Amino acid sequence: MAYVTSEIIDSKRDALKALNKQYGMKATLSGKNTSTIKVTISAGEIDLIGNAVRIMREEFLSGSFKAQMYDKLADDLEKQKYIQVNHYYIDSYFDGLALEYIKKVKEILSEGHWDESDIMTDYFHCSYYMSIHIGRWNAPYICAKATSSVE
Hints:
five-stranded mixed sheet
């Protein structure tokens, strides 16, 4: 049965703090006594929202069958500054430094994680579920990117 103990969160907290310091980000872990461990990235020097919006706009311009959906998602994302990241498809929504950081967050969450689920038989059995949020529904992500006069 999926369950997050305080020991699981404590074991990942130091690694997340070191990663945040390295990339100039602010993120927290939560989920004690639930089935899901959650990382909430609230602020940082990497423009995670801008990166995701750019990727969605590029997908829109490519003319794929999902183009209309991506355009609407990009508009909503620009306004809300909040996204729940699907950790199975990180490569589809981020690139560059943003992708590098999110992948490292996922590595921290994945350490010690096991998953023996069999979706064909509707059997879900894992140590815990993982959730990555950029911002919150009521507190948008803040990009504290150092601006320069020359870009």
